[in-house]
Amino acid sequence: MLPVLVNISRAGEAPFPALLHRERALALAHWRDTQLRHAHAMAALLREWPLYAEALRHVCADPATTGIIERHGVAIAGYQLHAPAAPGQVYCTIGNYQAQLLQAALDAGDGPDGPQAAARQAAAAAAIATRRREGTPYICMKGSACVAGPHDELQVPDDLTTLDWEVEIGVVIGRTAWRVAPDAALDHVAGYCVVNDVTLRAKVFRADPQILGTDWLQSKARPGWLPTGPWLAPAWNIADPGTLELSLRLNGELMQSGHAGDMVFDIAEQISYLSQHTRLEPGDLLCTGSPAGFGSHYGRYLRAGDLVEAGVSGLGVQRVRCVP
């Protein structure tokens, strides 16, 4: 595995960015003869990604680097892992996996075994094809205060009985993107990470007034509702993000399993669309949609005591314990 970026700390110390290889980590500042000697905080590293990216890529590509980490690095088990992103803005793409949309259609109405199930699924498939051909991504915003570490506890109060999971590929922007074309969009990516877009299903839709539709503030915006990490894989580690595989386990049981190739709008299309309407800045985070297998499908939501393991191939696995 090529080195990846982690944001780590020891008790009483400020977090710092490091390169991780085979469970050993070494601070970026170790490379004193490069620009990385100034990289003392992950937030600053990402905000100024164009300043650091060339030096970091050179260090990661150097065959000697893994040996340096093994000799001079420390065991990652002795450190706390923090979120490898510190975004100014967080964006979430909604309804972006075909299998999840088809599953939701089957679950609606008279259920997956009802007489209207086949018709609903056919209608959903046709709508997906039309949207893919003629439509655009549906993207909301989520507060940066939601970002949490990959092993942080997730509070589940007794009155929140529909708290749900959504494993996703997170995309961290590395270069300002304003009105970029899809074929140039990935040039603006710093790296990729795992995110879990925790969502309170009962608050997704508002009844007052109905015309306003979805309520992303109540359903997605509490602190801790976006576990992020365990690491950030630089964009040069991921030859094709469309090949990434996602999974989520609840207490060891597989609940979600999907493939980025099932996206209605791929990552480049999402970045391009966003950049037509807002300026994406280095450090911003885009959550790119979640595959089938939500808690709403199983009728089983998060509760205290649960262990949620969300992972993406090449991006690691986060382990979050739910607490009262």
From TrEMBL:
<keyword id="KW-0378">Hydrolase</keyword>
<dbReference type="InterPro" id="IPR011234">
    <property type="entry name" value="Fumarylacetoacetase-like_C"/>
</dbReference>
<feature type="domain" description="Fumarylacetoacetase-like C-terminal">
    <location>
        <begin position="120"/>
        <end position="321"/>
    </location>
</feature>
<comment type="similarity">
    <text>Belongs to the FAH family.</text>
</comment>
<dbReference type="GO" id="GO:0044281">
    <property type="term" value="P:small molecule metabolic process"/>
</dbReference>
<protein>
    <submittedName>
        <fullName>Fumarylacetoacetate hydrolase family protein</fullName>
    </submittedName>
</protein>
<dbReference type="InterPro" id="IPR036663">
    <property type="entry name" value="Fumarylacetoacetase_C_sf"/>
</dbReference>
<keyword id="KW-0479">Metal-binding</keyword>
<dbReference type="Pfam" id="PF01557">
    <property type="entry name" value="FAA_hydrolase"/>
</dbReference>
<dbReference type="GO" id="GO:0046872">
    <property type="term" value="F:metal ion binding"/>
</dbReference>
<dbReference type="InterPro" id="IPR051121">
    <property type="entry name" value="FAH"/>
</dbReference>
<dbReference type="GO" id="GO:0016787">
    <property type="term" value="F:hydrolase activity"/>
</dbReference>
